[in-house]
Amino acid sequence: MRSLLTLVALATVVLLMLVVVGFIRGLENSLAVSGDPDVVLVYSLGAEENIENSAVPARTAGVVEASLSGIRQRSGAAYVSPELYFGTRVGGADTASLGLVRGVTPAASLVRRAVRITSGHWPGPGEVLAGRLAHAKLGVPAESLTPGSTVTFENRDWTVSGTFAAGGAAFESELWCRLPDLQSALKRQDIGLVALTLSPDGSAAELDLFAKQRKDLEITATPETAYYGAMQTHYKPVRILAWAVVALVAGAGAFAGLNMMYGAVAGRTREIAALRAIGFRRRAVLLSLIQEGLVLAAAASLLAGTAALLLVNGLSVRFTMGAFALRVDGATLLIGCGVGLLLGAAGAVPPALKALRRPIAESLKAI
Fold first, then answer.
1. SS3 sequence, the chain?
2. pLDDT tens string 17-68
């Protein structure tokens, strides 16, 4: 029973570690995979690296396409996607919460190469395409955004035409609809940004020079990887705070684990004394207790890792940037299980040394 309680305590500590580290890894992975090295974002100068605040003339996409030769094309279609991106109140059958909506054209499927429709079809008039994690961002069940469901935003009812995935990118927490429909709902004629894909001989520096020369458009050009890299810098305090939580959890878990291991070993004082009485050396007894602690810690780490992979990995989390999935990968398991093994090895040493220092006759009388 004592060993079982020790196992449960260690498994709980390791599981808490895996959850917090999985949060950090999920956030970092979402930002890392969101940027395409071949994609450049063109948005307004006053947006201050926040495309939700961007507004550029609708003709910007055509001007950029006609002025630059380094844009990728296929069958005469240029990889240029005019988009309108903003946050608004999105309501379902019962609740309404802040959601992210992106108005797009069919060209978005060329530029956003990671996006794959998993069910349904591309949105038609009055329809939206829901990201895989859009339900988490809205705080509603996943069933409420299945094809055929209805959502409400900007005083209009929209039918969900399908769902899409984007390999863990930030797009997965968004709702996509036709750009003209969104412009009509918002009573806007401009767009928010232009996303374009450069050809192998294209240059982001050329596009940046073009943006600086066109004073009338008041635009700036930023590689998509640089944009999301800036977001990683913006969320750096959050990651530092999360790692601080990891340290606090590890510290609290260490004390809890050490206390549990101390009780487990201290309760066997008579057993240790009996082993010494029949001839076992102190070093052999100490090594045996450390081995037992490692076995318990390994079993607890295995149990916690299995639970994390089955219950925590891929769990959706709401965040200001949208939503992302907790990620229990190799690095996460290594950190969590490493702490667990360290607790098992270190937790057995102090009480074992205390028990081994006591005289055998006194230890045999211990209760």
1. CHHHHHHHHHHHHHHHHHHHHHHHHHHHHHHHHHCCCCEEEEEEHHHCCCHHHCCECCCHHHHHHHHCCCECEECCEECEEEEEEEEEEEECCCCEEEEEEEEECCCHHHHCCCCEEEEECCCCCCEEEEECCHHHHHCCCHHHHCCCCEEEECCEEEEEEEEEECCCCHHHHEEEEEHHHHHHHHCCCCECEEEEEECCCCCHHHHHHHHHHCCCCCEEEEEHHHHHHHHHHHCHHHHHHHHHHHHHHHHHHHHHHHHHHHHHHHCCHHHHHHHHHCCCCHHHHHHHHHHHHHHHHHHHHHHHHHHHHHHHCCCEEEECCEEEECCCCHHHHHHHHHHHHHHHHHHHHHHHHHHHHCCHHHHHCCC
2. 888 888 888 877 877 777 788 999 999 987 766 788 888 999 999 999 888 8
